[in-house]
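[SOLVED] Need 3D model of a two-part complex

Original post:
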Amino acid sequence: MSELFEKRKTIEQVEEGSELAPKFDEHGLIPVVTTDYATGELLMHGYMNAEALKQTIEKGQAVYYSRSRKALWHKGATSGLYQDIVEMRIDDDQDCVWLRVKVSGSGASCHVGYRSCFYRTVPNGKSFEAGKPVKLTYTELTKTFDPKEVYGDAPNPTQL
Amino acid sequence: MSELFEKRKTIEQVEEGSELAPKFDEHGLIPVVTTDYATGELLMHGYMNAEALKQTIEKGQAVYYSRSRKALWHKGATSGLYQDIVEMRIDDDQDCVWLRVKVSGSGASCHVGYRSCFYRTVPNGKSFEAGKPVKLTYTELTKTFDPKEVYGDAPNPTQL
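Solution:
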């Protein structure tokens, strides 16, 4: 565990204190929610291990842990699309991190080429028709970059 | 698996298709990011199992799976603070759900009493001083409700 983090001792300390005492799951990871500072758009959902969280705090830029590559992942190191942190928050029980970022370059955050990873909507409530297959619709109609140009032959991180 | 979901067959189907083919982790869960529709504020980060995702789509209201209580959790059923979904999205590899919601009543989403679960900021980059303990600061200064009045003696979901 990094010297930046405190041990988790009491619920009051974790929920109402000013000590950073993050909870990592059984894989040593904490989920991270990354939104665009200006628009509030959800760009991506990733994970950090203790070292990634430490480097993120030190750099002021997002460093994740890639579960598919099993390695630290300084976002932007390959693509140039760094995520500069404007504000970083942690939740009540300190088991989730929120990054509000400005993205360099084209502003994209998604390896498929879209600005946000969340480029499709799911029908629900009144827009959901029972008995019919659920059909996703696109909210982003064009890609902001060509993944092949940026990533070349690097393996696709999506796993089935 | 629910009849609402397709089997995951190819990366192209998952990333570029219009079929809903969510990936549940080894515990049968998918992470969910919930933001306020009007402000973009991150309200909470939770999980759904297949049944919770199905009920969320059918109701148009957030239904989570509580890992601490090991039960379906129709948000608002105890507190009255229902989360009505304005838009629901899924990410590139379909292993994360984004809900954009309007919250009933006081608008709070956090069991500690704050509007957002993310009521504390973490210093980073230029605001981080190496060698000193990391000190969280509060972005929400007042609670929107008294958890004891709303939840009574129900056990606190935070786990150490």
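Edit: The longest helix of chain A spans residues 50-59.
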